[in-house]
Amino acid sequence: MRKEPERTCVGCRGIFLQKDLIRIVANKEGQVSIDDTGRKPGRGAYLCQDQDCRARARKRQSLQRALRCPVPETIWIDIDQAVTALQDKGEE
Ligand SMILES: [Zn+2]
Question: Under CATH, which number does the domain 6-83 receive?
Fold first, then answer.
């Protein structure tokens, strides 16, 4: 069986399966968005589903540092929604 790809969460530095992480991507123009397909071009960063981890990452600006560009505050709403969607999917 093929091993599933793993990635590091930029918030807690934990290793998770890529499919369990939220991918955030910054494109060439410096626009930050959630990558729900896993195929968007640009510099990507991963966050796990843990709410405390997200709060910490937000406070420490881990995402800005990982993406090397400013991250709009609204991205955190999108991330929350993406986590909820991921969790819903997992419960099916
Ligand atoms: Zn994390």
Answer: 3.30.1230.10
pLDDT along the chain (92 residues), means of 10: 91 96 96 92 96 97 96 96 91 71
Q: Are 68 and 43 in contact (CB under 8 A)?
A: yes
Q: What is the pLDDT of residue 38?
A: 82
Instruction: Tell me how far the alpha carbon of residue 63 lies from the centroid of ligand 1, in angstroms.
Output: 11
Tell me what pLDDT residue 91 has: 74
Residue 9 near residue 53, CB atoms below 8 Å = yes
Domain boundaries along the sequence of the chain: 6-83
**Residues with a beta carbon under 5 angstroms from ion ligand 1:** 9, 11-12, 48, 53
31 C-alpha vs ligand 1 centroid, how far in Å?
22
Q: How far is the CA of 2 from the centre of ligand 1 (A)?
A: 24
